[in-house]
Design goal:
By secondary structure, this protein is mainly α. It has 30 helices and seven strands. The protein has two domains: 419 residues, no CATH class; 146 residues, Transcription Regulator spoIIAA, CATH 3.30.750. It is a multi-pass membrane protein.
């Protein structure tokens, strides 16, 4: 290894003054001895199980945060903003709740129930002041897929075989054995949806009990965004049958996107012209008006509820135009008023839907926590991830007894809620009052509302997710790894399977993190001319090196998966592979002995061969006596990593090159100590807290004798 003479001279000039400095010495704190496990368990049990008035009060207030903030509610300052935002969100929830019921394969009334109960429960248990919890399109899609699958397994007729105003019919009495009572298609659909919701809620509450709210950090923004965008493509495709007025079943299994488009194209000749015209008119109205709302949202005190206007006008047109009877257009049908009595989930269904419910639980919690933390950071307060797990879990468990399906936070409604003056979750209670008015009085008036209008509302609300495609070039320029995660997750969710997309996204993210540790390279460092600071020689100019001493840095943990790559990278950067060098030396010695036995060879020829071979393997290490490995960027070292460092020290030591470590963190020093890196003698347990101390120490050592003495 050679460097420029100027650099070497620069480094040598600072050596004399540096050697006058004393090395940095720090004394480690004595760690407390580990307590007996029995005493630890006893202490934890006393801490967790002790019951005092103060502890009981803290637990109650922590479980129901409304008891903490409601007594401090500032009536004059906050009530107007909460009432306004709650009223507007409630008005928006009416058409969206009815529309997203289609996506979940449920009757419209159950969407209204879901939004009503979730708004109340989250207001009591949630810690975020701004998010709107209710129906979310991706979760509705996941629930709808499970419902359709179970309906097919139970033997119910497909949607294309039943009228638009009636529920499915039981085939051959198959349902009587498992349900115990007569249950039509609509009844069984909401039973499946409620059972999935109950199971997902139980998962979320259990995760809250076991304090696993931290799992949300493993779902990156690129992963969640890609998953939501991929699911949005599936949602968009699933709504085309309503836009065209086609009665085709929802395909099951993988590659549903392709199956749906095949069914659509195959049945294109059966398009209902009335539904098609209505869909086009509604799209021509809603898309521009939504854009106007977005463009002038800074000037508008509240967004104009164009969706509600379209629903009212379309319902009146359908009713007086007799679209259902004269043109065969599908309508919402009977929407009863009031509430149905509670019912238990179908316990026999839980094994069938347990896996689906788990993915739904993870997605719902991740979306809720990410939105909660985003708006909490924006407005300067904090949220409790585990309490959010409880809140969203009970938003699923309790409403499931009242025929509701899965809920989570929804971005679009949350943005509306924040922009209209929301201060606390009192706005959620106001939204619930609006929904209650609809449930008790107004709901039957939506009998003639066409399903294609509801599909248009769903499609228009997908604009935000679909606009992510325009951001792909920007994402690629900013970070190619995150962009790749987004693309893979989106493609898998849309083209293969929605739930599989989430799993693939998590695995790809994990492999990307591991891959970064695999790609780390050893870098040679040089010293700055004005101070004791070392940086990468290939990245900065004006850095000097020390004769006979080389400094290297590895920017990743050293563990079982990359320890061999670390050694290869180090050997390549040093320019000397000690293993190959030793093998070459052994081969040379054997050849020497063999040649020595050849009495016919002249002594001059033997000397020439020996000198030539020696020069060959000595050339690469003629100026290197010592190596310093900067460990400041090494986060941890496992057993395999410690063994790799021991092998490096041993292999170079056999060539007369001393290897020392510098700037190890306390945890890395503990790993090295436990792994037996340091020999028993105290002389070799020298700890260097700076690179300069390690360099000065190595320069102060006498030049070792032997073949590898650094002399050419």
């Amino acid at each position: 290894m050679t460097h420029g003479d100027d650099c070497c001279t620069t480094a040598e000039d600072g050596v004399e003054s540096d050697q006058q400095q004393q090395p940095l010495i720090l004394e480690r704190l004595e760690k407390q001895q580990d307590k007996n496990w029995k005493s630890v368990v006893s202490h934890q049990l006393k801490k967790r199980c002790s019951c005092t008035a103060e502890r009981a009060k803290s637990k109650i207030l922590g479980f129901a945060p409304i008891l903490r903030w409601l007594p401090r509610y500032q009536l004059r300052e906050w009530l107007l903003g909460d009432a306004m935002s709650g009223l507007i969100v409630g008005i928006l929830l009416v058409p969206q709740s009815i529309a997203y019921s289609l996506l979940a394969s449920q009757d419209p009334i159950y969407g209204l129930y879901t939004s009503f109960f979730s708004s109340i429960i989250y207001a009591i248990l949630g810690t975020s002041r701004h998010i709107s919890v209710g129906i979310f399109g991706v979760l509705c899609l996941l629930v709808g897929q499970v419902v359709d699958r179970e309906l097919a397994l139970a033997g119910y007729l497909t949607e294309s075989s039943v009228s638009s105003n009636s529920s499915g019919i039981l085939l051959a009495g198959q349902r009587n054995d498992s349900v115990g009572v007569e249950c039509d298609r609509s009844c069984y659909a909401i039973t499946v949806g409620a059972t999935v919701t109950f199971t997902a809620g139980v998962y979320q509450v259990l995760m809250g009990i076991f304090q696993v709210g931290f799992v949300s950090v493993y779902l990156s923004n690129s992963l969640l965004s890609g998953f939501a965008t991929g699911a949005s493509l599936t949602i968009l495709t699933s709504q085309f049958k309503y836009l065209l007025g086609l009665k085709i079943p929802r395909p099951q299994g993988w590659f549903t996107l392709f199956k749906t488009w095949y069914s659509l194209l195959s049945n294109l000749g059966n398009t209902n012209i009335c539904d098609l015209v209505t869909s086009l008119v509604c799209l021509l109205v809603l898309i521009p008006t939504k854009e106007l709302n977005d463009r002038f949202k800074a000037k508008l005190k509240a967004p104009i509820p164009f969706e509600l206007f379209v629903v009212i006008i379309a319902t009146l047109a359908s009713h007086f135009g007799h679209f259902n009877t004269d043109y065969g257009s599908g309508v919402a049908g009977d929407i009863p008023t009031g509430f149905l009595p509670p019912q238990m989930p179908m316990w026999s269904l839980i094994p069938n839907v347990a896996v689906d419910a788990f993915s739904i639980a993870i997605v719902g919690f991740a979306i809720t926590v990410s939105l909660s933390e985003m708006f909490a950071k924006k407005h300067g307060y904090t949220v409790d991830a585990n309490q959010e797990m409880y809140a969203i879990g009970f938003c699923n468990i309790l409403p499931s007894f009242f025929r509701c399906f899965t809920t989570s936070a929804a971005l679009t409604k949350t943005l509306v809620k924040e922009s209209t003056g929301c201060q606390t979750q009192v706005s959620g209670l106001v939204s619930a009052l609006v929904l209650l008015l609809v449930l008790l009085v107004i709901a039957p008036l939506f009998y003639s509302l066409q399903k294609c209008v509801l599909a248009v509302i769903i499609v228009v609300n997908l604009r935000g997710a679909l606009q992510k495609f325009t951001e792909i070039p920007h994402m690629w320029r900013v970070n190619r790894i995150d962009a790749s995660i987004w693309l893979i997750t989106m493609a898998t969710s849309a083209l293969v399977n929605t739930e599989l997309g989430l799993l693939v996204g998590v695995l790809v993210s994990a492999f990307c993190v591991l891959g970064r540790t695999q790609q780390a390279q050893v870098l040679e460092l040089g010293r700055a001319t004005t101070r004791e600071h070392y940086e990468d020689l290939s990245s900065y100019r004006g850095l000097g090196t020390h004769p006979g001493v080389a400094v290297f840095r590895y920017g990743a943990p050293i563990y079982y998966a990359n320890q061999s790559l670390f050694k290869k990278s180090l050997y390549r950067c040093v320019g000397l592979d000690p293993v190959k060098e030793k093998a070459y030396r052994i081969k040379f010695n054997k050849k020497n002995k063999k040649q020595g036995k050849n009495t016919n060879m002249k002594s001059d020829e033997k000397d020439e061969v020996e000198a030539g071979v020696t020069a060959t393997f000595m050339n690469s290490s003629c100026s290197l006596r010592s190596l310093v490995i900067d460990c400041s960027t090494i986060l941890f070292v496992d057993t395999a990593g410690v063994n790799a460092l021991k092998e490096v020290r041993k292999d170079y030591g056999e060539l007369g090159i001393k290897v020392v470590l510098a700037q190890c963190s306390a945890s890395v020093l503990d790993d090295l100590e436990r792994g037996g890196y340091y020999p028993g003698d105290e002389e070799n347990k020298v700890t260097f807290f700076t690179i300069a101390d390690a360099v000065h120490y190595l320069q102060s050592l006498p030049t070792p004798n032997g073949d590898y003495d650094g002399k050419c």
